[in-house]
Amino acid sequence: MKKNFLPIAINISGEKILIVGGDQSAWKKLQILQRYGAEVEVLAKKVCSGIKQSGVTFFEEAYHSKFLKGYLMLYSCTNNETLDRQIESDCRAAGVLVNIHDNPALCQFVSPAIYRNGNISVAVSSNGEDVYESIRLRNEIREFFN
Ligand SMILES: C[C@@]1(CC(=O)O)c2cc3[nH]c(cc4nc(cc5[nH]c(cc(n2)[C@H]1CCC(=O)O)[C@@](C)(CC(=O)O)[C@@H]5CCC(=O)O)C(CC(=O)O)=C4CCC(=O)O)c(CCC(=O)O)c3CC(=O)O
Ligand SMILES: NC(=O)C1=CN([C@@H]2O[C@H](COP(=O)(O)OP(=O)(O)OC[C@H]3O[C@@H](n4cnc5c(N)ncnc54)[C@H](O)[C@@H]3O)[C@@H](O)[C@H]2O)C=CC1
């Protein structure tokens, strides 16, 4: 079935977010989430030094569904599609909102390209169909405001 993603703005203050995966994609995702003050934790077999030095709580372990307790949402940034499928199904069972960073077919929600200025956020999403167009348009919006 074709997916339809509804743009919403969700409060993350006081909520915990888990990133699975600990390399460059996870690092980029962490930096975006931290701009919104999210309380992020990272779980990966190997966590890169940038993430380790950023001060977030991290677990250098293999993924297991037992980790899912207490999170509002989870972003998977692994390099393993079989694992991502497992994570998606575990999250749905546990009631944790799930995003698989490079696989819209497995995403319960997708991440927009964001322009932020104080309380104003403009979020561009392509229904998960064309991320490059979302980024291009966000960059035009940034130019428009600056
Ligand atoms: C579905 C979605 C899932 C999700 O992540 O939620 C998704 C999926 C995919 N991304 C891919 C590639 C890249 N994505 C980025 C970057 C971003 N991707 C983001 C969102 C989304 N990406 C969601 C859809 C959003 C929408 O609806 O439009 C942004 C906007 C927000 C964020 O990640 O938080 C963030 C910009 C952050 C910023 O600038 O602020 C870069 C550039 C980079 O990494 O620097 C590359 C190239 C990397 C390279 O190749 O080097 C591919 C492979 C495509 C292909 O090759 O064809 C897929 C899979 C596919 O499209 O099928
Ligand atoms: N680096 C980038 O900017 C981009 C990467 N990608 C894709 O995204 C994926 C991730 O890329 P990178 O961040 O470069 O990561 P990477 O491929 O270097 O590392 C994957 C991460 O997942 C962790 N991991 C793997 N199996 C695990 C398990 N069972 N339990 C816990 N953690 C596990 C690893 O320890 C590592 O931290 C790859 O598939 C890559 O092709 C896509 C677009 C851009």
From TrEMBL:
One of its GO terms (molecular function) is precorrin-2 dehydrogenase activity. Pfam families: NAD_binding_7 (PF13241). It catalyses: precorrin-2 + NAD(+) = sirohydrochlorin + NADH + 2 H(+). It comes from the Bacteria. Pathway: Porphyrin-containing compound metabolism; siroheme biosynthesis; sirohydrochlorin from precorrin-2: step 1/1. InterPro entries: Met8-like, NAD(P)-bd_dom_sf, Sirohaem_synthase_N. Keywords: NAD, Oxidoreductase, Porphyrin biosynthesis. Its EC number is 1.3.1.76. It is an enzyme of class 1 (oxidoreductase). GO terms for biological process: siroheme biosynthetic process. This is precorrin-2 dehydrogenase. It comes from Tangfeifania diversioriginum.
